[in-house]
Amino acid sequence: MEDSNFMEDHKSEIENWELGAGIYISFYLMRNSLQGDTNAMTELDSLEGKNAACQDFVSQLNESLAVWGCRLPVDARVVYSRMAGEICDLLLSAVGEGASRDEQFSCFDTAFSAPIPEDQRSGHLQDAVYLFTSFLSEIAT
């Protein structure tokens, strides 16, 4: 009887596993893959593949924030923000790996859609402006 009461009390968390604990598992797998860990379950070779995986992770975070709304504790929001920030930093650190401009700009779009602090978003925006300026100067020459 005690187990069923416990299960009932945490019904929404169990129903939304992917939006709860599954995010943490996704984060660690994603981080290890982006860091090039050979033991990671998935290997992300191309910038396009890295970006697609990061887009999925960011979507998962944003969906969780939307589902939980104000019921999500502040501590959890901070953790989500840190996870998103770390994943975006790892993704954007790979932007210069010989990818096309479209792929590079797509990575910035992913970072801008992530639930990261405004100061970090501003830093990424400056990097995107620099990339765009470089692109314009290459066209001009």
Helix content: over 70%
Show unreliable segments: 1-7
Q: What is the string of helix and strand elements?
A: HHHHHHH
> Which sheet architecture does the biggest sheet show?
none
Put the structure in a nutshell.
With 141 residues, the protein is mainly alpha-helical. The chain has helices spanning 2-9, 11-15, 21-34, 47-68, 74-93, 101-112, 118-140. It contains 7 helices and no strands.
Walk me through what this model shows:
The longest helix has 23 residues, at 118-140. Mean pLDDT is 81; it is low at 1-7. The chain has 141 residues and is mainly alpha-helical. It is 74% helix and 0% strand. It is built from 7 helices and no strands. It has helices spanning 2-9, 11-15, 21-34, 47-68, 74-93, 101-112, 118-140.
Which key phrases capture this entry?
141 residues; mainly alpha; 7 helices
SSE blueprint and pairings:
Elements: H1 2-9, H2 11-15, H3 21-34, H4 47-68, H5 74-93, H6 101-112, H7 118-140
